[in-house]
Specification:
Among the domains are: 43-61 and 135-304, no CATH class; 506-651; 657-805, Leucine-rich Repeat Variant, CATH 1.25.10.10; 875-1027, Leucine-rich Repeat Variant, CATH 1.25.10. The termini are far apart. 65% of the residues lie in helices and 0% in strands. It is mainly alpha-helical. The longest helix has 24 residues, at 51-74. This is Phosphatase PP2A regulatory subunit A/Splicing factor 3B subunit 1-like HEAT repeat domain-containing protein. Belongs to the SF3B1 family.
């Protein structure tokens, strides 16, 4: 390309090259600089000024300026000042002699001899050794950079300790008072408070978990006693320490949060200090620290008020450091969310309209930019009412003299439009022409911002039918600029173009020649090796934009253009192409049916080529082949041989990763291979035999994938075909899988249990019952697994085995397992018993459970109750009703047991019974639930949180069964009891009843016609109205 064209496209115009004289001198802040500069601010505050003092100082400054201006007006006719003179050597010598006495080296030393001559007789020299020494106080906000007076031991490499807590170098600087003296040596109350707070903060920051809990509790209860001056004087300098660990900074943030919430309006003089110390956390990489910083700033804004916040942060609006200005904008965004945009909006308008400071205008625009993040949330519910005012105040900034202000404004308009999407285009109508003209007047970074802004506005116009003509007009101009900038080497421009293409309403009707004007230039400039080797974010944007353009224009054309890249020599480009093809096939499978036979062949060939040539195995290649096969359906029939040959060849590879990926591919496409073969399952039989012979794999990851592939292949057979399977037969396959169950690898265990469960579900009669019992014993060990999926699969397999051979033998094995000491194993066994009861009718299991409950062991009894809980949770109400009378004596014994856990689990069983039978029982069954209510209600006074939660849930379920009328008769006496500890749980139950049955409770309220000694009638006649 000639140099002239490059200069024309990517250099600024002559009339734009002179702007930004101020901002060009400022170095651009990159991402890593924020981490380094986050904690470099200093807190130098010797005197705390209130809001009133600050306003008086501002008033005095304005008065001085007014008097000076008035003086200059009256002294306009004064004589002109004499011209500047050149000093001669003689004048310089005379000046030096005249001021020579000011030299410190020539001053007279006040020795004892001189003082005796100057002072009159009678003065004596004071003896400092006999004078009482006071401990030097420590500065409130400024810790000394180097602590003096410490022993030499502190300067050695070994870290000092305080009460067994090792101190770091930064801790020595901030907590030197703890090492220098004891609290008994301090006389001033303020020093004692500071000493005690340092002790608490150090224990919370560096102590053990128990020590930290005690310190946090002490701090929460003594915040008001210590006072804000001492608290913030100790903690805030620590927050600005750059070498703090994330855990320590998190603890200090919690301390500040508790102090701010409890001190309330007392923090007003310290508003700026708190914000300066906490605001750097808003840009921290840890999301927890960012959320804590937001909560603290929100609490400060509520306690200090908007006026104090504005006064404190006003100097930071036009600060020389861009980092400080960005933090200030984020803080005001949080303040607006907390106090309401209506209160903050007038101040933001005044800042943006500032004519003296371009930094202030830029900060005001950034405030609205951050408002979109904090208030928008994608729905614009909070921003939409104020959108016209925001657009009106931002509109002049689009034509500002400074490029950085215009760029920030355009980006803010883009974010505003995204926040209120798809509404609000009427408010943006006034800036459409300005944004369009900005495309012609900017290059580089400014052009990227205006592209984003106009793209967001066009997306809004597309959702309003009255703007259809505007949409086509501005879309045509924007696409002309986008296609021209496809060749731009700037990454920011590339990201702006790609994000804009994702939102533009392009279509075949609006762009008739879309192939030559859009698709070909797009693939020529974005599907390159340079882009593929760039950041993952840019590659993701290219893939998403490609899929969006393909769905809007033509999937067939896009697939034909993507296929050559899947065979490219660059692996990153192949991966991008395969990922785009996978996404298109998964989202628009019907469009792939329109592909020609040649395109279909080359597509599968390209996908298999990329699958074979990968140097680092990635799952996207397998997903792409699966998505393509799913989209093409029966059209892959001519290519089954190619697929199988590729898979079998890679299954014999020496690398375990290659064999693993091939087995996973078989598992994903097994159903398509079975549907597209016409040899009565002969191909799948051979594939099953090949996988069966591969069960001797030594690598557990590969073995797990082979078992998963074997499960998928066997799952394609019908039941009759599966029973007639001879090589290998099912009776041969299961004994081969039984030893593999003992493999400790989680993937092998999960896939093997699923395959065993499938065999038990489909053709269990082909296996001897003794073999199933052997499998059951091996499955018991699977209940100890740390992975939940394995335990779930094992429990389900127990149900299938019990259904196949009967529940008696399986149940005996499970009941014996309830006597172990490991809690997780007992819980999983109880779940398995519940599943067996659900699979095999409950009457086959319930007698054995009730008999086992008589065994005098709490673990066994608790396990039985858990099994009953899971069983009645799975059953329907009509089936649970039949076992209600039979199970009542057992539950009565459990609800009156002395063990809390016993009563807790029994309450869970009653809850499931009550909810299941709520609508299918009559009066006879209602008396049973009333009996349960009498047994459960005394447990309402339990103090254990786990027990009381289950008890209240049980009482709520019983209220549904017995009805609110009878239930409230139990509640009324407790609501007005003399003891508070009695009233509290009853009111908790009443609140839950009022929420769920407020209408049904009205007829059962107690009637109070009149009170004693009162003449007022409280009769409510509406309660006597019957319909």
């Amino acid at each position: 390309m000639p140099k002239k064209i490059l200069s024309e496209n990517y250099t600024q115009q002559a009339q734009l090259s002179h702007e930004d004289t101020y901002f060009e001198k400022q170095p651009q802040i990159i991402k890593h600089d924020y981490r380094q500069r986050a904690y470099t601010r200093q807190l130098i505050f010797q005197k705390e000024e209130t809001y009133k003092d600050k306003m008086e100082a501002i008033s005095n400054l304005r008065e001085k300026k007014r008097l000076k201006r008035q003086h200059n007006d009256y002294s306009g006719n004064d004589e002109p000042l004499p011209k500047r003179q050149v000093l001669t050597d003689a004048m310089i010598d005379f000046t030096s002699k005249k001021g020579g006495t000011s030299d410190s080296s020539k001053t007279l030393a006040l020795t004892d001899h001189i003082l005796e001559r100057l002072l009159p007789a009678g003065y004596i020299k004071a003896n400092l050794a006999n004078e009482k020494k006071h401990v030097a106080t420590v500065q409130v906000y400024v810790p000394p950079p180097e602590v003096t007076g410490l022993d030499l031991q502190l300067s050695r490499d070994t870290a000092p300790e305080y009460q067994g807590i090792p101190l770091k170098k930064e801790d020595v600087k901030h907590f030197s008072l703890l090492l220098q003296t004891d609290i008994e040596d301090l006389e001033l109350l303020q020093d004692k408070k500071r000493y005690k707070l340092m002790d608490i903060v150090l224990k919370a920051k560096r102590g053990s978990p128990q020590m930290r809990k005690k310190a946090m509790r002490w701090f929460s209860s003594h915040v008001s006693e210590v006072g804000p001056e001492v608290i913030f004087g100790v903690i805030l300098p620590l927050m600005l320490e750059p070498d703090l660990e994330d855990m320590e900074r998190h603890i200090l943030a919690k301390l500040i949060d508790r102090a701010v919430h409890q001190l309330g309006s007392e923090i007003k003089p310290y508003t700026h200090k708190i914000v300066a110390a906490v605001s750097p956390l808003l840009m921290d990489e840890d999301i927890l620290l960012r959320l804590e910083a937001r909560d603290i700033i929100a609490a400060v804004s509520r306690s200090a008020g908007l006026a104090n916040i504005i006064t404190s942060l006003r100097p930071d609006l036009d600060h020389s450091d861009e980092f400080v200005r960005n933090l200030t904008a984020r803080v005001f965004g949080i303040v607006a969310k907390t106090l309401g945009l209506l209160k903050v909006l007038p101040f933001v308008k005044a800042v943006i309209k500032s004519k003296k400071s371009p930094q202030a205008r830029h900060t005001g625009i950034r405030i609205i930019h951050n408002l979109c993040f904090t208030l928008g949330g994608g729905n614009g519910a909070s921003i939409l009412p104020y959108l016209p005012q925001l657009v009106e105040v931002l509109h002049p900034a689009l034509e500002d003299d400074l490029l950085q202000v215009r760029v920030a404004t355009a980006n803010t308009f883009s974010l505003l439009a995204d926040s209120v999407y798809p509404y609000g285009i009427d408010s943006f109508e006034s800036i459409l022409e300005t944004a369009r003209s900005g495309l012609k007047q900017h290059r580089g970074r400014g052009l990227a911002a205006f592209i984003r802004a106009l793209g967001s506005l066009i997306a809004l116009m597309n959702h309003n039918p009255s703007y259809e003509e505007y949409t086509n007009f501005y879309l045509h101009d924007l696409l002309h600029v986008l296609t021209r900038e496809f060749r731009s080497p700037d990454d920011d421009m590339k990201r702006a173009i790609l994000r804009t293409l994702l939102r533009l309403p392009v279509s075949r009707s609006s762009i008739p020649d879309y192939v030559e004007s859009i698709l070909q230039p797009f693939f020529l400039n974005f599907w390159t090796r340079k882009v593929a080797s760039d950041s993952a974010q840019l590659c993701r944007l290219v893939i998403d934009a490609t899929c969006e353009l393909a769905q809007r224009l033509s999937i067939t054309e896009a697939v034909e253009m993507l296929i050559p890249f899947a065979k490219n020599a660059n692996e990153n480009l192949r991966r991008m192409s395969v990922e785009a093809l996978s996404k298109l096939a998964a989202s628009s499978p019907r469009a792939f049916l329109e592909l020609s036979d040649r395109t279909e062949t080359t597509l599968l060939d390209a996908a298999l080529y990329a699958f074979q040539e990968q140097s680092q195995p990635k799952r996207i290649y397998q997903s792409a082949i699966f998505s393509i096969c799913k989209a093409l359906q029966s059209r892959i029939k001519p290519h089954v041989t190619v697929l199988l040959s590729t898979v079998l060849f890679r299954m014999k590879n020496q690398e375990p990763e290659v064999r693993l990926q091939a087995a996973d591919l078989v598992a994903s496409i097994a159903q398509f291979l079975s549907d597209c073969t016409d040899d009565d399952g002969l191909t799948m039989r051979k594939l099953v035999l090949f996988l069966y012979e591969s069960l001797g794999e030594v690598y557990p990851e590969v073995l797990g994938s082979i078992i998963g592939a074997l499960h998928s292949c066997i799952g394609t057979f019908r039941k009759d075909t599966l029973q007639n399977l001879d090589n290998p037969s099912i009776s041969t396959l299961l004994p081969t899988l039984t030893p593999i169950l003992k493999n400790r690898h989680e993937k092998v265990q999960e896939n093997c249990i699923k395959l065993v469960g499938f065999i038990a579900r489909t053709c269990a009669e082909s296996i001897n019952s003794k073999e199933w019992m052997r499998v059951s014993f091996d499955l018991l060990d699977m209940l100890k697994s740390q992975r939940k999926q394995i335990r779930v699969a094992a429990n389900a397999t127990f149900g299938h085995i019990a259904n196949a051979i009967g529940p008696q033998d399986v149940l005996a094995t499970l009941l014996n397992n309830l006597r172990v000491q490991e809690r997780q194993l007992r819980v999983c066994t109880a779940v398995a018993i519940g599943i067996v009861a659900d699979t095999c009718v409950p009457f086959t299991v319930l007698p054995a459970l009730m008999n086992e409950y008589s065994f005098p062991d709490k673990n066994v009894q608790n396990g039985i109750l858990k099994s009953l809980s899971f069983m009645f949770e799975y059953l329907e109400g009509s089936m649970s009703r039949d076992y209600l009378f039979a199970i009542t004596p057992l539950l009565q014994n459990a609800l009156t047991d002395r063990d809390q856990v016993h009563r807790q689990i029994a309450a869970v069983v009653v809850r499931h019974l009550a909810l299941n039978c709520a609508s299918v029982v009559d009066d006879d069954y209602g008396e049973t639930f009333l009996h349960f209510l009498n047994l459960v209600l005394p447990n309402l006074y339990e103090s254990s949180p786990h027990v009381i939660i289950r008890i209240i849930e049980c009482i709520d379920a019983l209220r549904i069964s017995v009805g609110p009328g009878i239930f409230m008769n139990y509640i009324w006496p407790g609501l007005f009891h003399a003891a508070r500890k009695v009233r509290t749980p009853f009111w908790r139950v009443y609140d839950a009843a009022y929420i769920q049955h407020s209408d049904a409770m009205v007829p059962y309220y107690p009637r109070i016609e009149s009170l004693p000694d009162k003449s007022v009638s409280y009769t409510v006649h509406e309660l006597d109205v019957w319909i």
